[in-house]
Amino acid sequence: MKTGGDKTRQRLLFEAFKLFSTKQYDQVTYNDLENATGLSRGAILYHIKNKETLFRDVVGMFVFRNSTMTSLEESRGTTLKDTIDNFIDRLGREQREWQKNGITNVNFAMLNIQMSSYTTFPESLSYAKEWYEREVGIWREVIARAVAEGEIRRVDPTMFAEIFENTYLGAAYAGLCEEYGYNVERVRYKLHCLYDTIAGD
Fold first, then answer.
1. How many angstroms separate the CA atoms of 111 and 176, rounded?
2. What distances in angstroms separate CA 36 from CA 12, 15, 77, 104, 112, one per listed residue?
3. How far is CA 158 from the centre of its chain?
4. What distance in Å separates the CA atoms of residue 26 and residue 32, rounded to the nearest whole number?
5. Cα(108)–Cα(46) distance, integer angstroms
């Protein structure tokens, strides 16, 4: 169960995400954080060491742990088809939750904060590469199991893992120019079309 301190830190991280997703890192001030959270400077620094730590925690939590295959650890024993649906359902819940909290286009918010991270802390590109490889690795496991169990025909798990991940990432990038970000059901349709091309007889 979350304590009051846990809830306060969670609120701080979420409000910081909203700020960092609309402004560059060096444009976000402690005054901005105080106004957005209703917390004093002392209370903010009680929960985080400094602004850099806060930014890194925000990127880690909202960019590299949300909207990801890693967030679906509990579904890794399911079929490929169910994994696709679990993943898309997660995207839909996230999109609705963030819109409810004032982030209209989650794709724009994500890209904006990622680019700020890469330009401010170039070493974060290495972390992004590791994240991508981990995501593809999870897809590969699921696809290899689907092949072994006869759910889909024999395909190269590594190649199709990249195709599934890149289909999602392409949809996320295309969602930048849409008012509300990507159409989650359209992403589901694309991944199911891909699934249908390799489904077993």
1. 8
2. 9, 6, 41, 17, 19
3. 21
4. 12
5. 30
Distance CA 39, CA 19 (A): 15
Residue 71: its pLDDT value, please? Answer: 76
> CB 121: neighbour CB atoms within 10 A?
15
Q: Give the C-alpha separation, 160 to 15, whole Å.
A: 37
In this prediction the pTM is 0.87
The CA distance from 161 to 138, in Å, is 8
Question: Can you give the pLDDT at residue 98?
Answer: 87
User: In sequence order, what are the beta bridge partners of 199?
Assistant: 152
What are the mean pLDDT values of the chain's consecutive 10-residue runs (201 residues total)?
70 91 91 93 90 92 79 74 93 91 90 91 90 93 95 96 96 93 96 93 64
Type of residue numbered 148 = A
Count of other CB atoms within 10 angstroms of residue 22: 15
